[in-house]
Amino acid sequence: KMRIYSYVIRKDNGLAPNPFWDYCTLALDQPMIRQIAQVGDWVVGLQEKSEKLEDHSLLFAMQITEKLTFNDYWKDERFRYKKPDFSIDEEIFKMGDNIYEPIKEGYEQHYSHHSRDFIDDEEEWVKQKEEDLQGKFVLISDKTSFFYFGKEPIEIPSTELIDLLYCDIGHKCIADPIIPRLFLDFIVDLQETGKIGFNNPPIIWNKNDDSYVQCYED
Fold first, then answer.
1. Are residues 112 and 96 in contact, defined by beta-carbon separation less than 8 angstroms?
2. How far is it, in rounded angstroms, from Cα 64 to Cα 66?
3. Burial zone of 99 (CB within 10 Å; 0-12 exposed, 13-18 middle, 19+ buried)
4. CA dihedral 194, 165, 152, 78 (to 10 degrees)
5. Do 82 and 20 touch, CB atoms closer than 8 A?
6. What does the mean pLDDT of the chain come to?
7. What's the pLDDT tens digit per position in 62-87?
8. CB-based contacts of 49: which residues, under 8 Å, 6+ apart?
9. Quick check: 95 and 15 in contact, CB under 8 A?
10. Which residues lie below 8 Å from residue 10, measured CB to CB, with a gap of 6+?
11. What contacts 99, CB < 8 A, 6 or more positions away?
């Protein structure tokens, strides 16, 4: 039975989710979703502009096509460009989410936007790393199975659907078969508009950096 997992995205910078290089991936944050969601389920991210339901919009939606361990994600050549590289002065390379290399003692965290330099204090960094690893898995959606709207999130046409998806703390899991039908009707409408895949850069993105374009050029 298909489930929908939804949450409000507080910081959309291209890291979680990471919508680049032909795959939308969720490798960091949201540990419970990453643990329990299965292939075929949907993960939905909302943008919250105010406490009013009608002010919520769709930032991304991904149907899970693969679920990998950190080990497999690190070793898979398809995701080599999702390993952050700060030697290249373009945001797309710095925002990689493939940051946990398997070692004998567990995992080594490679330099990334989840490194200590980017976290306010030591305690918060330790907590963030623990949450990343608690998720255990990386959720993956191929380019025909996700919608990412970034800085131009789209209106959700029904207040009823917003109410079903909205969760102000943590995440919401929806298993009621009536609700997925309503959601899938919305997805079909999106597909018919041709907006599948990557549409816009993340909300938090340097307006002078168009590096996101290169991974979608034929």
1. yes
2. 6
3. buried
4. -60
5. yes
6. 88
7. 999 999 999 999 999 999 999 999 99
8. 55, 56, 57
9. yes
10. none
11. 27, 28, 83, 84, 109, 110, 111, 112, 114
Q: What residues contact residue 52 under an 8 Å CB cut-off, 6+ apart?
A: none
Is 4:173 a contact under the CB 8 Å cutoff? yes
Q: What is the pLDDT of residues 201-217, one digit of tens each?
A: 999 998 888 888 765 54
Task: Find the length of the chain.
Answer: 218
Question: Quick one: how many helices (H) and strands (E) in the chain?
Answer: 6, 12
* CA–CA distance, 24 with 104 (Å, rounded to integer): 29
pTM of whole model > 0.85?
yes
Residue entry with tokens 């850069």: 201
Q: How far is CA 178 from CA 57, 82, 174, in A?
A: 21, 36, 10
The full DSSP string for 54-76 is GGEEEEEEEE--EEEEHHHHHH-
Asked whether the CA dihedral 128, 12, 176, 145 is positive or negative, the reply is: negative
**Res. 218: pLDDT tops 60:** no
Cα separation of 133 and 27, whole Å?
A: 9
Q: Which residues pair with 197 in a beta bridge?
A: 147
What does the DSSP 8-state code read for residue 146?
A: E
Q: Is 194 left (phi over 0), alpha (psi -120 to 50) or beta?
A: left
Residue 4, C-beta contacts closer than 8 angstroms, at least 6 positions apart: 41, 42, 43, 44, 165, 173, 174, 179, 180, 183
